[in-house]
Amino acid sequence: MRAQAKHILLLLLVTGFAKSYAQQTIQFSQYVFNGLAVNPAYAGYKDDWTLNLSSRIQWVGINGAPKTNTISIDGLTNGESKKVGLGLWASTDQLGPQSTSSVYANYAYRLQLDANDTKRLCFGVAAGLIQYSLDASKFNAIDVSDGLVPSGNQSQLTPDFRVGLYFYTPTVYIGASVLSLIPATTTPGSNAIIQQVRHYYITSGVMVPLSGFLDWKPSIMFKEDFNGPANLDVNSFFLLKKVLWLGASYRTGVPYLNGKTISGLYKSDAIAAMFEFYAADNLRIGYSYDFSTSPLAGNQSGSHELSLSYSFKGRRPRILNPRYF
Questions:
Q1: How many other β-carbons are positioned within 10 Å of the β-carbon of residue 68?
Q2: If we measure between CA atoms, which residue out of 162, 198, 130 comes closest to residue 37?
């Protein structure tokens, strides 16, 4: 069984070489609690400077499966006008022989749209660096003369840029962003796995009060790179007594927007169960478990993800409108 899993993973990697596309941007089930992961315009949304940590182990039981860690901090530069948000985001991602490290500086300009400051339209940009590395010693090629299998270690450092829009009220948000704004090009003879492609995101969610102690938050995330099927995440959370979030997410592929098709491609990806607990007003602890619904389900035992956020309370008055997104 383990040997079969290795073959599946190797097939995924080799497919990446053959089609000259990089692995898609890192995947997190709990992105709904840290929008900076997919949109630079989110910087400063929670007003207070907030530290976020995340760690994800994907496809447990498959050697070389993805392992991802991130750290970020963001907040406002001025507590009075709240016009400027800043953030710093760093991540590491390991997938078999491929590893990626990245760091981004994020800037958001936040327009106040009403007198009570319940609506904001935010414009965000981010600039950063991505370090791609490939350890060819981790490949066990059946045919060593296969030109798709690299030899030796490779590394590539590239600049990267992101842009985004983010609109929110106390009960609604919608965002749009572009990651890897300027796709990197590879030099002749280099391996395509270290080539990045542009990704487009649309996110949206609402907060619906159901009773004095129960609220419902449905949300979606749509991701497209125009080189393969788009991804759609549909999420549903219930908030109990403003302290405990319980929810689930369904992740699947949707038809190509670029006209390309791949016969036999399995669209359904995973179902995730999640909970988030506020141990204090400024401390959130989260966990999610992904159940794979793809053919990989029989070769691995799911994916685990832990997250933690801590807000550094300032001296200014408390936020009048709670930050649910």
A1: 19
A2: 162
Report the C-alpha gap between 13 and 97 in whole angstroms: 9
Q: Do 248 and 223 meet the contact criterion of CB atoms below 8 Å apart?
A: no
The whole-angstrom distance between residue 145's C-alpha and the CA centroid of its chain comes to 37
In the chain, the N- to C-terminal Cα span, in Å, equals 41
d(CA 110, CA 86): 11
Could you tell me if 321 and 170 are in contact, meaning their C-beta atoms sit under 8 angstroms apart? yes
- Cα 138 to Cα 193: distance, rounded to the nearest angstrom: 15
Whole-number pLDDT of residue 262: 53
In eight-state DSSP terms, residue 212 is S
Single-letter amino acid code for the residue at 257: L
HSE at residue 256, side-chain half, CA atoms within 13 A, is: 10
Give the C-alpha separation, 268 to 251, whole Å. Answer: 7
Please answer whether residues 85 and 36 qualify as being in contact, where contact means their C-beta atoms are separated by less than 8 angstroms.
no
pLDDT tens column, 168-218: 999 999 999 999 888 765 554 555 455 678 899 999 999 999 998 999 999
- The CA R_g of the chain, rounded to the nearest whole Å, is 20
Q: What are the distances in angstroms from CA 134 to CA 6, 91, 98, 139, 155?
A: 17, 17, 5, 10, 6
Q: Where are the beta strands (DSSP E) in the chain?
A: 49-57, 67-76, 84-95, 98-112, 120-135, 153-168, 172-179, 199-206, 208-209, 214-224, 230-240, 244-254, 268-280, 283-292, 303-312
CB 50, CB 36: distance < 8 Å = no
CATH of domain 2-139+149-280+289-312: 2.40.160.40
Q: What is the pTM of this model?
A: 0.84
Is 195:20 a contact under the CB 8 Å cutoff? yes
How far apart are alpha carbons 210 and 137 in whole angstroms? 56
